[in-house]
Amino acid sequence: MKVAVLPGDGIGQEIVAQAVKVLQRLALPLELEEAPVGGAGYEAAGDPLPEATLALARAADAILFGAIGGPQFDTLPRDKRPERGLLRLRKELGLFANLRPAQVFAELAQASSLKPELVAGLDVLIVRELTGDIYFGEPRGISTLASGEREGVNTMRYRESEIRRIARVAFEAARKRDKRLCSVDKANVLETTELWKQVVTELGKDYPDVELTHMYVDNCAMQLVRAPKQFDVIVTGNMFGDILSDEASMLTGSIGMLPSASLDERSKGLYEPIHGSAPDIAGKGLANPLATILSSAMMLRYSLARPAEAERIEKAVRKVLGQGLRTADIYTEGCRKVGTQEMGDAVVAAL
Ligand code: NAD
């Protein structure tokens, strides 16, 4: 089993090193090979997705990704910026389905910004379409009108086939859970999402055992903080999913706890924490590595067909939280504050 390890920028190096340690402890026949991406790719090869990195990612069975970006890269031409590297990687590998579980570990209910009783036991899965929508639609750009005024343009587009394949992933996921799927759109204003709603409804006929509901994105944003436990699986487009999954992440207490998977049609996947490169804490040993460690567990489950090992990692994380170890982002009174490496070591020890 070959895994491409792409740490990226900022805290990427620190957190991926912990996940690698955990994977190595499992003593599986895993071949781990590292390559630069994002700002690190630009510095190494003048490209946020160097050819050699893309080739490695193509050849691998799965990709373990850290995070990309940083203020030092913000002035680069747009096509050289770190974010382009990740967007291109997703596009090149056809990673269209982003699975973002938001679970609240009982030990962390206190760390949520919501009342513990609203989030204790929360288990939502957000399924976000990843390769279409306004992030990729053409035409796009900033131009100067005849009047001299500048105008920015992006285009929200979805083809029926793109909607159907992501909706299928979501229905299948719902089938394995509580069998409830909420499709999120803005069909009252945007034609693109009116089509979204129609296609999801049509596909719903193939899944009579799954209860399908629809919700406008603004209402969903509100419901997620009002009564988040009403949801089982949420499916939505790229931009709405980007925002709603970050909102859901805060329900869990920390963005540093949430893993994600981005899958292609054959379940090859890229696994990454949902957070960014956190330049404010990079290099300080403060970053929470658990989202990345939990991402490696998802990798074992979805791409490498090793569910037992995935569960071992998840249990080890729960054990460490049960022992009261906390990085600064999830720290509450009475717990023991630890750094990135100590948290990684504790998970290895728990394994
Ligand atoms: P961010 O997720 O990097 O950070 C937001 C806040 O959460 C910061 O205060 C940070 O310190 C904290 N945080 C994030 N991860 C943490 C962890 N593991 N442990 C503890 N605290 C953590 O988002 P941002 O500040 O908006 O963006 C910073 C850079 O990351 C930008 O360049 C952005 O483009 C990039 N970014 C990359 C990705 C990705 O690689 N997939 C995603 C989002 C943002």
Q: How is this fold's topology laid out?
A:
Layout: E1 2-8, H1 12-25, E2 31-34, H2 39-45, H3 51-59, E3 62-67, H4 82-92, E4 97-103, H5 116-119, E5 123-129, E6 141-144, E7 150-153, H6 160-175, E8 180-185, H7 191-204, E9 211-216, H8 217-226, E10 233-236, H9 238-251, E11 259-263, E12 269-273, H10 290-302, H11 307-322, E13 325-326, E14 336-337, H12 340-350
Parallel strand pairs: 1-2, 1-3, 3-12, 5-10, 8-9, 8-10, 13-14
Antiparallel strand pairs: 4-5, 4-11, 6-7, 11-12
Helix pairs in contact: 1-10, 1-12, 6-7, 8-9, 10-11, 11-12
Walkthrough of the structure:
The chain is an alpha/beta fold and about 350 residues long. It has two domains: about 180 residues, Isopropylmalate Dehydrogenase (3-Layer(aba) Sandwich); about 160 residues, Isopropylmalate Dehydrogenase (3-Layer(aba) Sandwich). About 40% of the residues lie in helices and about 20% in strands. It has a ten-stranded mixed β-sheet with strand order 2-1-3-12-11-4-5-10-8-9, sandwiched between helices. The chain has a two-stranded antiparallel sheet with strand order 6-7. Helix 1 links the parallel strand 1 and strand 2. Helix 8 runs parallel beside helix 9, helix 10 runs antiparallel to helix 11 and helix 11 crosses helix 12. The longest helix is centred in the middle third of the chain and has 16 residues. The chain starts with a strand and ends with a helix. Bound molecules: nicotinamide-adenine-dinucleotide. Nicotinamide-adenine-dinucleotide binds next to helix 4.
How would you summarize this macromolecular structure in one to three sentences?
This protein has about 350 residues and is α/β, with parallel strands linked by helices. It contains 12 helices and 14 strands.
